[in-house]
UniProtKB/TrEMBL annotation:
CDD domains from the UniProt entry: TM_PBP2
Entries under InterPro entries matching the protein: BP-dependent_transpt_permease, MetI-like, MetI-like_sf, OppC_N
Sorted UniProt keywords: Cell membrane, Membrane, Transmembrane, Transmembrane helix, Transport
Superkingdom to which the source organism belongs: Bacteria
Native species: Planosporangium thailandense
Places the protein is found: Cell membrane
SUPFAM superfamilies, sorted: MetI-like
Name of this chain's protein: ABC transporter permease
């Protein structure tokens, strides 16, 4: 019995935690999770399910209407729109993921360092965050791209730097509250180092705020990266990307062929809305969102 009871208690707690998460999400949140899952699945399986090469088209098949050969039609270069949307999910989601991961890592480190050491270190971190706040996200990204060249990697890294202060500002307040609790003081009295206390106690207790903030920032990152690609500073042709597809479809839109811009724009809107709903249901903007 002594070996079975702990497992039963752990299993029961996991079930209660899972049910609590579903209750917080609600029907709309669950639907958003399903949408995100489908988008990720489409991005991962794009090489297997895309009917055509997204970069190769045919002049004789320009502006084909949706049909058996091309389910969503073709663009101005005769490329299959469904294939480009599927492959575009790969760059759009991957770029946003890089932004969110780098921003979360940088913001978390700065928040924990400022919280633990306090004093001059906290003031120095605060001045650094204020300096980063002075640069609008897109302006900083454009500056970096102008110096290091166009591309998804450069744009993602630049946006990650711009997102760090938004993440660090909120996480610092949460970590500061945890820092003052009795369990942290008890760990210090036991002689544990600041690194151990931070890694073993502070970090796990602010992890929910990190995750919910990342979910919200994911949507913002998708919008900013799409804007950079729209301006020609992010993903470069002929690579498929939703923001780039919106840009490339401008002339087609004026000629009466709105499919490319509308479909790519709809994908961006749906993805951003889904991530925003998940983030807000799990904790709201106070958990580290950019806004």
């Amino acid at each position: 019995m002594t070996g079975v009871e702990p497992l039963a208690v752990t299993s029961s707690r996991q079930r209660r935690s899972g049910r609590g998460t579903v209750r917080r999400l609600g029907p709309l949140g669950v639907a958003a999770v399903v949408i995100v899952g489908l988008l990720v699945l489409a991005a991962l399986l794009a090489p297997l399910i895309a009917p055509y090469d997204p970069a190769i088209g045919s002049v004789v098949e320009r502006y084909q209407a949706p049909g058996a050969a091309h389910v969503l039609g073709t663009d101005q270069s005769g490329r299959d729109l469904l294939s480009r949307l599927l492959y575009g999910a790969r760059t759009s989601l991957t770029g946003a993921a890089v932004v969110v991961l780098l921003a979360a890592a940088g913001g978390t480190v700065l928040a924990l360092v400022a919280t633990w050491f306090g004093g001059r270190v906290d003031a120095l971190v605060g001045r650094l965050l204020d300096l980063l706040f002075a640069f609008p996200n897109l302006l900083l990204a454009i500056l970096v791209v102008a110096v290091f060249g166009t591309g998804l990697t450069q744009a993602a890294v630049a946006l990650a730097v711009a997102y760090v202060p938004y993440t660090a500002r909120v996480l610092r307040s949460v970590a500061l509250r945890e820092r003052r609790l009795a369990y942290v003081q008890a760990a210090e009295l036991q002689g544990l180092s600041g690194f151990v206390v931070t890694g073993r106690h502070l970090l796990p207790n602010i992890a929910p705020q990190i995750l919910t903030g990342a979910a919200i920032n994911f949507g913002y990152a998708m919008i900013d990266l799409a804007a950079l690609s729209f301006l020609g500073l992010g993903v470069q042709a002929p690579t498929a990307d939703w923001g780039l597809m919106v840009s490339q479809g401008q002339d087609s839109l004026l000629q009466g062929y709105p499919g490319q811009s509308l479909l790519a724009g709809a994908c961006i809107v749906v993805a951003v809305a889904a991530f925003s709903v998940i983030g807000e249901r799990l904790g709201g903007r106070r958990a580290g969102g950019r806004a």
